[in-house]
Design a protein that fits this description.
Number of helices: 5
Radius of gyration: 15 Å
Structural class: alpha+beta
Number of domains: 2
Number of strands: 5
Helix content: 25-40%
Oligomer: single chain
Length: 155
């Protein structure tokens, strides 16, 4: 079956099988910035934005994203031109091994795009489901607060 989807602003077409997950298709097509973790939607490493909503791509059937927009971490910033959230995570020392960071940043972006001035509890809720084994989440929460204070929404 043919899947037509916009990924990071570029319209793409892929041949997929009915049981393919979005994660499988993305990685097969070279979007290696989308990490494979638990495969059950519990760790958040495979998080992408689907029409602006943070979703775990390992639990989303690829056929269900027909005609929709997918954004990976590579779609919001580059090393030469990072997104303000990416800069805030570096500034606050919220990045250690980096495995969970794409999911954390995309989850935070979905939050800030819809709520530019979240409470700490709302930040915690938005990051819930993104497991980090290196930190105590304190610096990630501080990074989202910093990004919100700097007005990083919709960039």
């Amino acid at each position: 079956m043919l899947l037509t989807v916009t990924i990071n602003g570029e319209k793409r077409k892929f041949e997929i099988s009915p049981g393919d997950t979005l994660l499988e298709v993305l990685r097969r097509e070279g979007y290696y910035e989308v990490k494979k973790g638990c495969g059950t939607g519990n760790c958040g490493t495979c998080t992408v934005l689907l029409d602006g909503i943070a979703v775990t791509s390992c639990t989303k059937l690829a056929g269900l994203v027909e005609g929709r927009e997918v954004v990976t971490i590579a779609g919001i910033g580059t090393p030469d031109n990072p997104h303000p959230l990416q800069e805030a995570f570096v500034e606050e020392g919220a990045v250690q091994c980096g495995y969970c960071i794409p999911g954390m940043i995309l989850s935070a972006k979905a939050l800030l795009d819809n709520n530019p001035n979240p409470t700490e509890e709302e930040i915690k809720e938005s990051l819930d489901g993104n497991l980090c084994r290196c930190t105590g989440y304190v610096n990630q929460i501080k990074a989202v607060k910093l990004a919100a204070a700097l007005g990083s929404t919709n960039t």
